């Protein structure tokens, strides 16, 4: 089939479909910025019945913006998923939006999503990939790789640079794209630049996404970006927004396992408290190894209180020194883990870490911030905070430090959350190395 050349002088959104039984694969690493010009809204077509959850109506878009939807290869082939469902025990298709879709993290993540290892072997999905004007051609390459990978569960792929198009009716939004911290850039500057990106994405989600969309913010500083995003999406429950701290949890489990001389599947109840920064608090007090409190297995208290914590806080920087670039594959794995923790029931007695909205928490943490805390899920995409948690004076003091940092970040982005003029009084530069 002849391929049409795609112009990048505007922000097209392409809907790419597969025929029944044909699969695909994807790409993401550098967290690039996203263009948010108010282009016309383009609905992503789907051959299955729409989700029962009503999506909000997007703002009116000028009709003089002509659509240039182009497709190629197998994605141009129409299909009837409902006919497939007569012979296959498949669930209804779900739509997953991914920003920063041409970067290295997505390069690993998209293939996991398409393979069925995240949502399950009977769950067909549509991928809606958001990039920048500069990455549009790379997004086409991502779509080609997904096409060539023959994933039966991947039924649609859409690419574009306009979040009002790409977020249309999405039930999951994985917000990876963000501007990296440049040389000489102050942390307050990065908060403002990336905050503007997530403010616009929050508005787009509020306008066109499913009313019950689950949002995982990866782009840093992820806690405050998640707060900005949810503040700009008042029609979506604040509880549905998450900041990714699962990679920190995974790193903590690994270090405890190494110290205890066990495999890491023996480590449970691992909590990361607070901010995704060097003030984060890996909680060894509540962690368990083979069901026994970690402090009873690892009796080296000094190691737990100093070296263990510092290893988790600085792990990303050490990786950069060794490899010359920030983590991508392990970040993608942690995103997949974070989703699975919400769509599968939490094992009895265990919990997982996620940066979530603090309103209503029982830990004494300030309200109206996004703070990593221990969560449990019934597997329905929702969660509740764990109640059987011990907090001693040592842990409380560390929690207060990371809380103070997040409150300072919140003041720094007040102009983006609708809370007045910004005032930056950040206590110190605790940005993680991967953000620099």
What features would you describe in this structure?
- This protein has twelve helices and 15 strands.
- The protein has 436 residues and is α/β, with parallel strands linked by helices.
- The strands form four sheets. The chain has a seven-stranded mixed β-sheet, sandwiched between helices.
- β3 (125-130), α3 and β4 form a beta-alpha-beta unit.
- α2 (104-115) packs parallel to α10, α5 (187-208) runs parallel beside α6 (222-231) and α7 (246-260) packs across α9.
- The longest helix is centred in the C-terminal third of the chain and has 23 residues, at 301-323.
Helix content: 25-40%
Strand order of the largest sheet: 1-4-3-2-5-6-7
Number of helices: 12
Mean pLDDT: 83
Residues in β-strands, percent = 5-15%
**Structure class:** alpha/beta
- Contiguous low-pLDDT stretches (5 residues minimum) are 1-72
Order of helices and strands: EHEHEHEHEHEHEHEEEEEHHHEEEHH
Overall number of strands: 15
Q: What is the C-alpha radius of gyration, as a whole number of Å? A: 21 Å
Distance between the termini: 44 Å
Task: Characterize the biggest β-sheet.
Answer: 7 strands, mixed
Task: Indicate the overall shape.
Answer: globular
List keywords for this structure.
alpha/beta, 7-stranded mixed sheet, 436 residues, globular, disordered N terminus, 34% helix, single chain, 3-stranded antiparallel sheet
